[in-house]
Amino acid sequence: MNIKTELESNQIILLLMPSAGYSTLTIDILKGLAGRSICYVTLNKTHQALKDVFQKNEIDTKNIFFIDCISKTIKKCPDIVEGCYFVESPAALTEMSLCITKVLAKNVSYIIFDSLTNLLIYEKKAPVARFVSIISNKIRETKTKAIFYTLSITEQEELIKETGMFVDKVIDFGK
Fold first, then answer.
1. H or E segment to which residue 42 belongs
2. What's the rounded Cα separation, in Å, for the pair 99 and 87?
3. Is-contact 2 32, C-beta < 8 A?
4. How far is residue 148 from each of residues 77, 115, 153, measured CA to CA in Å?
5. How many other β-carbons are positioned within 10 Å of the β-carbon of residue 125?
6. Which of 3, 18, 14 has the alpha carbon at shortest distance from 174?
7. Structure confidence by residue, pLDDT tens digits, 143-153
8. Beta-carbon count within 10 A of 20 CB
9. Which pTM does this prediction carry?
10. What does the alpha-carbon distance between residue 110 and residue 15 come to, in Å, rounded to a whole number?
11. Nearest to 42 by CA among 59, 13, 64, 24
12. How many angstroms separate the CA atoms of 143 and 116, rounded?
């Protein structure tokens, strides 16, 4: 499946991904979107760890802007460095939303949100669903396309149903 093609007719996509192969799928998707400006919101790895993985997989990171929600939970970081905003933690939904708003003002082509599953470690389902609704509405006011990742697991079914209302298409890579 070509995600870039799916994004031509859908502004916001929720991707249900199997645990096995998750990393490979994220790399393949990023390779398919290469060459355009991308904001990568990371809730499970530091932006530096991701940059290393992307470069190892021959993905040019000069057009990728990061919103890193992990680094400040493990070390002291500034609020911003070149190419990256640092958010206090994945639970800081308001701060994350403000960073996403700043990035949307820069007219990025794509936002990749990795992942809703990780948000549920820090927040309950209702605030996460409300967050997805707010972010989706902000994205719809722009020409930016968005991808929300979530694991395709039984424990996520309620969140998937609820957040599925805020996106244009749900794609299940597990099937």
1. strand 38-42
2. 8
3. yes
4. 26, 6, 15
5. 15
6. 18
7. 999 999 999 87
8. 9
9. 0.95
10. 14
11. 64
12. 22
